[in-house]
Amino acid sequence: MDLQLDQLRALDAVISEGTFEAAARRLSVTASAISQRIKALEDAAGRILVQRTKPVRPTESGLAVLRLARQIELLTGDTALELGDEQQPAHRPVRIPIAVNADSLQTWVMPALGRAAAGVNYEIHREDEEHTTRYLRDGTVMAAITSTAAPVQGCTVRRLGAMRYRAMAVPDFVRDWFPDGPTAQAFAAAPVILFDRKDDLQFRLVRQYTRKPVDPPRHYIPSSAGFVEAIRLGLGWGMVPDLQRRPRDNLIPLDDKMFIDVPLYWQQWKLDSPALGRLAATIAEAAAEALL
Asked: Which of 96, 121, 177, 288 would be 190's cystine partner, CB 3.0–4.6 Å?
């Protein structure tokens, strides 16, 4: 296949931005030029690469070419920085999309990115650590913090450590809803805070300690800070990472023995990229300081 760099950049821009018009603005060309480049790329590949919906989505074949496009773009940016291209940071900075779970992003990842090397733009996709690997599989991100130890095809994996989560609530909530302690009956009745409908951590703890399924009233709070605030306000109990606990929140554990350690791993593309390598080293250093 004779795949041209401007065509690959057009594919990356269309999928990232969601429309041909937005991709054209990003690349400072016309929407017609983007359409022509995508058509030429599909002709070269011999198959349809994008679904022309809103937002534009890649086909299965498009995902494979998108991964190639982003690999080439990253290596091109690395090379420009290595050669001392002064225009690189201003006009085409190295872009590294990564997937991170909300609690890590709220606590230790952002300070790590603040210490990372200049000349890199980050596109962060927030997702539960049990689901971030899907972004690696479909080429959306180049690296991810995940709870999955098995490497995604084409990726390397490194253990970062573990985040400890404890079942927490305010004292009044514990007194009213758990007068006899954290029993299965109390868990079935007490309101619980969940991050979203994929959040199973609270129920995993209940199954671990009571061996019984429960179906309590529940609140969905899709914000790491808002999750803790909901518990602080007495809306329910929830699993709070030790890294996020603050004395002024006045939270207490339902039981000192009720915690879960969630292992975290760094997975990234097998790509000899200095920028990606520096980011991995920075994340590993920050994780060594923050995690168990």
From this structure: 177
